[in-house]
Amino acid sequence: MIEYRNLRVALLGAGSVGAQVASLLLSQKDELTARVGAGLELIGIAVRDVDAPRSVELPQHLFTTDAESLILGADIVIELIGGIEPARTLVLQALNSGADVVTANKALLATHGPELFRAAEQVGAQLDYEAAVAAAIPIIRPLHDSLAGDRVDRILGIVNGTTNFILDRMDTHGDTLESALATATELGYAEADPTADIEGYDAAQKAAILASLAFHTTVPIESVYREGITSITKEQVDAARAGGYVIKLLAICERLTDATTGEKGVSARVYPALISREHPLASVHGAHNAVFVQAAAAGDLMFYGAGAGGVQTASAVLGDLVSAARRHVVGGPGVAESTHSKLPVLDVGSVTTRYQISLQVVDQPGVLATIARLLSDGGVSVETVQQSVATAPDETPGHTVAADAPPTATLVIGTHAAPESALAATVKVLAASDVVSSVASILRVEGS
Ligand code: NDP
Ligand code: HSE
After folding, report:
1. Which of 307, 330, 338, 382 minimizes the number of CB atoms within 10 Å of its CB?
2. Nearest atom within ligand 1 for CA of residue 287
3. What's the pLDDT tens digit per position in 112-132?
4. pLDDT at position 441, please?
C-alpha cells in the first residue's frame, strides 16, 4: 500500500464553527486518516486574539495571528473568518499558492464567487463550500454532482436558521422579534451582524449561490430580490395562524418565462411568505432549514436538517475537507464551476405568485364590488374574500376618527396567481381609491 505524506491543513478562524472544526479534526484524526488515505495535520489556527476564550479546549501552540504565513505552508486552507476582507485576500492567496480551499462564507461566495472560482481553475485547485448554504444539510454537492445530469427547474427553501427560529418563536411562543433574535444570537445561529439575517441578506446570498449552481449561470447578488422579516408583526403572525398559514422567510430560485414579454430566464428572490400549515415547510421549526428541489427527471426532492450552529456546520466543513484531501491523494485538477448556460436573471416583476392583501375599507354597500372591479381591471383575479365585523369609528382601537366618519371593516383578499408587476400597480390603485382607508398588509402565498 502506498504511504502518502501528511496533508497540511491551515484553519482560519476559531469562532462558533472554526473551534468545532479544529476539535473534530483533532479528535477524529485516525478515522479521517483512514478515510482519506493520508494523514491530516492541523498546522495552525489563525485568529484575531490568540488569548480569547474558545468554546472548546484547543492546543494553545496552534494559535497565531499571522494568517498569511500559515497559508504558505498549507495543502488545504479552511476559511471560517466570515465577511469579505480579509477573507477574500486570504482565500485568493491560498488558491494562488495551489492550496485547495474549504469555506462556509456565503457572503464572500455570493459577491466574489466568479473571481475565486477563476483563481482556483487557473491553478487546478478546488474551492468547496458545502457549509455556505443550509449549514449541515448536503445541498451543494447534490446540486453540483448528483443532479449534474438533470435539469433543475425550481428551488424553494428555508435557508436562514436565525429567521426561521425567530418566526417560529413568534408563532409558537408569542415572542417578540427582538427577544427571539437575542436568543438566536446566544445560540450562535446569527451572523456577527444579525442585520444580515433579519433583513434577508444572508438568505439572498444563499439564493445567489444556489441559483448559480442549479442553473449553470452566474447569478449576481445584486440581482436577487430581497425582503427581510423586520416588518412582520405579531398581528400578521397571529392572523396567518388563524387562517391556517404560517409565515416563513423563503428563498426561491426558478426558471421563468415573463408572462408579458415572453422572455425566458431565471429568478432568485427572498421574502417572507405565507405557506399552508399542511405544507411540509410549515413543520420546519427552530433553526432548521429545508430545501425543496424540483428537477425535470428526478421530480421533487427535499433536503432537511440543521441550518446553523457551530458543530452542525463543522460536519459539512469536514466533509469538504475529506473531499479535498482525497483529491490530493488521487491527483488531478479540481472540478471547475459550470456557468455555461448564461441565462438572463429576470426582475421580480416577471414573477407570478399568489397574494393575500389585507385592506381597511369603508363599510358601505358597493365597496366590495368596487374593490373586485379594481383588482380585475389590474389583471388580479380574486380567489377568496373574508370580511371582519365592521368597527364603528369611535371604537377603532388606537385611532381618533371624526364622529361622522363611516365605519370601517377589514377585507382579507386571497388572489389567484398574478404577475408581481400587475399586483404592484393594482395595489397603488387600491391605495388611492376612496373606498380604501389603508393597505394593511400584502403577503405572498407560496408552496401550493
Ligand atoms: P465567528 O464570528 O464566530 O468566528 C470568526 C472567527 O474568525 C473568530 O475566531 C475570529 O477570531 C476570526 N477572525 C476574525 N477576523 C479575523 C482576522 N482578520 N484574521 C484572523 N482571524 C479572524 O464566525 P462563525 O464561526 O459563526 O462563522 C464563520 C463562517 O461560517 C462565516 O462565514 C459564517 O457565515 C459561516 N457560517 C456560520 C454558521 C453558524 O451557524 N455560525 C453556519 C454556516 C455558515 P477571534 O476569535 O480571535 O475574534
Ligand atoms: N446566520 C446563518 C443562519 C448561519 O442563521 O442561517 C448559517 O448560515
Report:
1. 330
2. 40
3. 999 999 999 999 999 999 999
4. 92
Q: How many CB atoms lie within 10 A of CB 74?
A: 23
Pick 3 or 107 by higher pLDDT. 107
287-299 pLDDT per residue, tens: 999 999 999 999 9
Q: What Rg value do the Cα atoms of the chain yield, rounded?
A: 25
pLDDT for res 192: 85
**CATH number assigned to the domain covering 351-446:** 3.30.70.260
Closest ligand 2 atom, residue 165 Cα: 5
Task: Indicate which residue's Cα is closest to atom 1 of ligand 2.
Answer: 190
Residue 110 CB less than 6 A away from ligand 2: no
The residue among 166, 380, 190 whose CA lies nearest residue 272 is: 166
Segments making up each domain of the chain, as ranges: 7-135+311-330, 140-308, 351-446
**Fold held by 140-308:** Dihydrodipicolinate Reductase; domain 2 (3.30.360)
DSSP state of 338: -
User: In the Cβ-directed half-sphere of 317, how many Cα atoms lie within 13 Å?
Assistant: 34
Centroid of ligand 1 to alpha carbon of 178 (angstroms): 23
